Structure formats: C-alpha cells, structure tokens
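Hi U.,

Before I forget, here's the chain from the pilot set. I'm dumping it here mostly so it's searchable later in email.
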Amino acid sequence: MADARDPRIMTQPPSYFGKWGNVPIDGDVRPFSIFNPVRGGAGRTNRKHHFISVTYMEGFTDECGRVQVYRAEAPEAPLPMQPTAIGYENHYYSQKLPEGGQENHRFEDLWNPIETVWPETVRALQARRLSPALSFNVQGMLTIMRTRVPATRDRIALILEAKLRSQCQVLEEIGKLPPGLERYAGQLDTVPVGINPHETLLAMEDEFKTFGDLCFRLGFEVLHNRTDIPFLTSDNPVCTYESRESLLARTPYDHSGDIELIFPLTARMLVRGSSKRQPFNVISRHRDVTDPRKVRRFNRTIAQFAYRMTLGQDRSSDAVVCAHASLVPTINTEVRRHGKEIQIVWRHIFGPKPNLSQYIDTPEKAARLEAKMASAASSLVSDGC
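Structure:
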C-alpha cells in the first residue's frame, strides 16, 4: 500500500480551483492546478501578449528553432520565424481600469500555469504514458487554445456588432436615436461598429465553460506520427466538427451529431477526441499513424481551421495550406424581426475572413472615422451615385 503522505498520490490544490483541480501528480508531471495563477506586481506593464503559446509552438520548430509561417494573405510565401516573434499582439489582453490606467497581466497570468507544465506534459506523452495529470494538462492547453485566439474573439465581436447595430436601427425607427448617434441616421446599415475589446475578453468565461462541457462528451487518444510528413498547426489549432461530414461539406464547430476533435500537440503528435470513444474526458490510449495519407488528411483539417496563419515545421504541406487559405471559420449573422421582438440568428461557416471595425475610444479616433466617412460620401456624390 502506498504511503498516504507521498505527494505523488494527491496534491490538494489551492481553493481557487476547487474540486475540479484535485488531480494527482504523475511522477514528474504536475497538474497545472497546483500553481497559483494570481500573481503580484499590479504595476507590471508587459505589453507583448501571445495568443499562441510560445512553449506550444516550440513543438513545431525545425533544427534551427524556427517555424514556417503561412500568412492567410500570402500563403504561397511562408516565412521562417522564431516562435517568440509571431502569434502575439501588443496589449491583446489589456483592460482599462475604472479608476484610470490599464491592467496588462491578469489574463497572461491565467495561462502561465498551463504553459509552465506543457514541456513535461509533452515529454510524458512522447513516452506514451497515461494519467489524470496528463489528461488534465492537455485539456487545459486545449481550452486556452480554443478560447483565447483571435478566431474566437472576432466571432464574439461579430455577434455583439450585429446586436448593437440592430438596437440602433430600432431606436432610429421609433425616433429615439441618442443625440450622439443622430449624425448616423440613414447609415446604420453600413456605418462601422467597433466593439470594445474588453467585452470579448469578458466573454471568455462562457467560452471556457462551453468548451469544458464539450470535453465531458469526448474520449481522447494520442496519435504518434511515424511518417515523414510533420503535423501542421495554426493560430486556431483546436478543430471540432461533425465526423460524418466530408471536408468540403463540413461546418466548423458542429456538435450536433458524431463529434470529432483534433489538436496537434507537436509536429509528431496529435490528440484526437471523439464522442464515440469512452471513457469520456480522459486520454485513454496511444496509437501510431504510419499512413502518410492520414497525416495529410489531418493537415487538411488543421489548415481549414486556421485563421490568420498556419504553422509548419517544413514546406511539405505548401499545397494543402494554399488550398484552404481563402476561407476561415467565422459566423454568419441574420437579424429577424417579429413585431417588437428582435432575434439575432448566427451560425458557424467557413467564409472570407471578416474585417472588424476599430473600436473608437478616443476623440482622435472619432475624428479620423468622421473624416474617412465624409471622404467616402464625397466620392459617391462626385461619381454621381
């Protein structure tokens, strides 16, 4: 019988994770729940915020420590780059504070425990181990790489934009458009509507819960790539869909039937989830993939779900990336009116990458927008429209 004092048997996580994080340590693999994601130093001003984890991207680097970056706007000309130089935006997670100033690190701190244990998690998976800690850490990385990426935040912004635009149109119809918006009367179908980035950050909590619920409907396995073709990854690497649909007929994030999830762990490993596999919510086996056709099929799906960029260890998948670069997972919104009731119906699609309007939060930005709109109106008049 094992000694109950052995810390590998069970580590009681801090209270902020509760029972959900009560996961045993697996030898040298620590569940990320043992780390406190709340750190001090409120005055920190880090501004380079990665939405693709650097430690995750290191699993796809070549012998020179670089990845091939296929940009959606120029997939035919990939650039070899260091992981630290890509997959980030300045102040991507920053939030304005009510009392003034800006908070820059809280979301980065939340991701940090998951990223800290990722190298040891990958090494254990390469050794074909199975344990609750490994399943827990993989699902942690799955969750943040599904919810924090631009593809998800842009989708939320599009829904909020449709809601705000329709509300303003109703106010215009009943003659109650606020004075600050009266200048846009008659233009509310086309006027740019920028969404406060803070709103899309707050929506992450619901995204976490929704994705967590999905994981409780899936069983997982790790596939080891034994071919000469490395797995791709992207800035939107968690792919879920109806497994019975063909590639070209597929709807992204369709969870209504037989669900399949794929997530590349490294260039040589991929985790696959399935609603037909049990037990749910755990990684239960390792398998080899020796058929290059299967690897290409996985890579086609990974390229299909990419948003701004696809990442590769080498140039062996150029054609696959280029074939899927013009469409991205996004949403289509439709506003339906039933008397006084407004319904916004949206659905996932593969379509052109949306161009979101800039959020106007300063007088200077507002002045530039007004000038741009005035210039566009003058051009229409001069063209006789």
